[in-house]
Amino acid sequence: MFSKKKRDEFEGKSFVKKRIMTLRSILKISILISVLLFSSFLFAQDKSFRIQYLYIDQIKYVSLNDLVKIYGGELRWDYLPKKAYWEVDEHQIAFSLFSPYVLMDGKVYNLFYRIEFKKGAFYVPLKNFYPLLKMIKAEETEFREESQSLMLEEEPEVIQLKASRKLNGLLIEIFVSGPLTYEVFSPGHNWLNINFYEAKIDTGSFSELVIPELINDTKAYQFDNSAQLSLLLSKSYDIFSHSLVSDPYRIQISMEDTSSQFTLNHLEQISQKTDLVDVVIIDPGHGGDDLGNVGSQGLMEKEAVLDIAKRLKALFHNEEDAKLEESYEHSSDLKAFLTRESDLNVPLEQRARIANQSGGDLFLSLHVNSSQDPTESGFQIFVPGLAKSREDSMVQIKENHPFTLNSSDEIKDTLSYLDTLPLDTTQTKFMRESKDLAIIVEDELRRILPTKSRGIGQADFLVLRKAYMPGIVIQIAYISSPYEELLLKDETFNKWVAQALYQAILRFKGKSPESL
Q: Exposure of 265 by Cβ count < 10 A (0-12 exposed, 13-18 middle, 19+ buried)?
């Protein structure tokens, strides 16, 4: 699996490694993994290392980067096949993104939960990966879950219940005192059950709580090692999703109303499609009196992205001015549509309507970034979801803001649109495909463009909310950078961007549904 050259380089460090192993045996280092409510600690002799973890589908995940800092070794990446390799203490471990299988010293191990990519790093399920850590340092690693000496509170507690009607359904929020394991299921007859494990609930205050026109009845139960809250909804909902969010901690349950004939028809079309990608929707951001970001030399975002969007569409339709390099394939069975063909301000809902009614399979929204710091540069890809960093939140705010500056009628549409569920449940069906598309697009742009990659971010862009298909937002460059503004004015650079996006879509289309 690893080359002889790599192994020789690894063995060349044997002197340093032997010295470290000798010191370890003398000091009798003991590593303790203690899983707390908010963070984990690794203790090595009298030193401790804080490891931040995160919940993914109620499972604790830890960053592979953090484990490498503690256990040592060398971590390398192979971005094209989405793999990572960790060499530590003569062990060789291979990880595949979005796969639960890990190859260690030539043997396959099943972690049962797939490897995830968050915050620019691979994340592994902590508890299920622990046996492999024991194999690395058998006598130095100890796992304790929820150490009583460091627990912040005995058991999480269910605190409050709220429900509110949204345009596309019902939002239920259950406030809890901290992270916890739970499940949501519907037994039928408009009942919704939420089970909380190792948690407490005040059965008196929750039982028979009624929220007019939304929740007709509630029942709360406390068991020895769990609690349950049962809600009788005022109507039936065919689709629902849920997630645990923080600040404050609460379980958000989105009950989507699919009674809209348009939504039902579109979802039926999606289910009947046999090809992965037939139609690509290209969305040049801004337009009309919405200029977008403006560079110091006067270039407007709305102009730059429309030019690139037109070049990209030309590649799909094999127009005369779409001359591809010999290294590029061409696919005549793909169609592309623009959400705007000229300098028009197209409202959010209309962009999504164009995408859906065109039978779109992929949605690419093109933008350029801006910063007060003229040295900021590079391209970045965003997938739909809650922003995970301050930088991603700022980009989200800037791109969502123009939709609140339209005419009076459009303001009403925009404000009502903002009153939708936190994330449409139909959109969450495409999260995995959106992430796969983002990885491929980032790889192609990195390969072709002379600018740097700022990685893959996550933000709740309004433009992706109602497009029922995998979608990403692409920040092509920083128009506030004098150098990148010149690039955006250059015809060759814009062709490169279009060709990179085109090739990425062909690669995505070439994947079988089973591989996504």
A: exposed
Distance separating alpha carbons of residues 120 and 99, to the nearest angstrom:
17
Kindly state whether residue 447 falls inside one of the protein's structural domains: yes
Does the pLDDT at position 322 exceed 60? no
Q: Note the pLDDT tens digit of each residue in 221-235.
A: 998 778 999 999 998
Closest to 206 measured CA to CA, from 184, 174, 234: 174
Q: What is the 3-state secondary structure (H, E, C) of 172-206?
A: EEEEECCCCEEEEEEEECCEEEEEEECCEECHHHH
Which amino acid is residue 494, in one-letter code?
Answer: N
DSSP 52-121: -EEEETTEEEEEHHHHHHHH--EEEEETTTTEEEEEETTEEEEEETT-SEEEETTEEEE-SS--EEETTE
C-alpha dihedral (61, 62, 64, 66), degrees to nearest 10: 170
Residues spanned by the domain of 240 = 157-256
Q: Are both 216 and 362 inside the same structural domain?
A: no
Q: Are residues 360 and 481 in the same domain?
A: yes
Count of domains for the chain: 3
Under DSSP, the state recorded for 12 is T
Give me Rg for the CA atoms of the chain.
Answer: 26
Both 308 and 334 in one domain: the answer is yes
Question: How far, in Å, are 39, 61, 119, 133, 391 from residue 53 at the CA level?
Answer: 6, 6, 11, 16, 20
pTM: 0.50
Is 267 part of any domain? no
Check whether residue 323 and residue 449 sit in a common domain. Answer: yes
Q: Dmax of the chain from CA atoms? A: 75
Q: Give tens-digit pLDDT for 175-208.
A: 998 888 888 888 888 999 999 988 899 898 888 7
No. of H helices and E strands in the chain? Answer: 15, 28
Are residues 32 and 104 located together in one domain of the fold? Answer: yes
Same domain, 318 and 402: yes
**What is the C-alpha to C-alpha distance for residues 339 and 291, in angstroms, rounded to an integer?**
16
